[in-house]
Each structure stands twice: as C-alpha cells, then as structure tokens.
Amino acid sequence: MLQMSDFVPAFMAYDIRGVVGEQLDAGVLRALGGAFARLVSAPSDNPV
Q1: CB 17 within 8 A of CB 10
Q2: Exposed/middle/buried for 36, CB within 10 Å: 0-12, 13-18, 19+?
Q3: Does some domain include residue 47?
Q4: How many domains does the chain have?
Q5: Against a cut of 0.70, is the pTM above it?
Q6: Which of 6, 35, 41, 47 could form a disulfide with 2 if both were Cys (CB 3.0 to 4.6 A apart)?
Q7: pLDDT in tens, 1-48
C-alpha cells in the first residue's frame, strides 16, 4: 500500500509536479485516481 511519503516529491500546494515514470508511476496515478473516485462518489449534503 502506498503511503503519503510516496507522493510528497510530486505534490505542491496547488498542483502536482512530477516526472512520469519517476515520481508519477502507474501505482501512484492509480492510487490518486482511486482516491478521487471515492471522494466524488461519497454521499454529500452539498450536491453540486
């Protein structure tokens, strides 16, 4: 399982900066996509 320390070099305050294949590999991108999917699919009291 990935830890936050796996992401630190690529994540800045307001964006993601990393080299594909180095800081941003398939595992990191899969985890990021999965986290985003869970976030947007979670029930919310504030629908858009």
Answers
A1: yes
A2: exposed
A3: no
A4: 1
A5: no
A6: 6
A7: 666 666 667 777 788 888 888 878 888 888 889 988 998 888 877 766
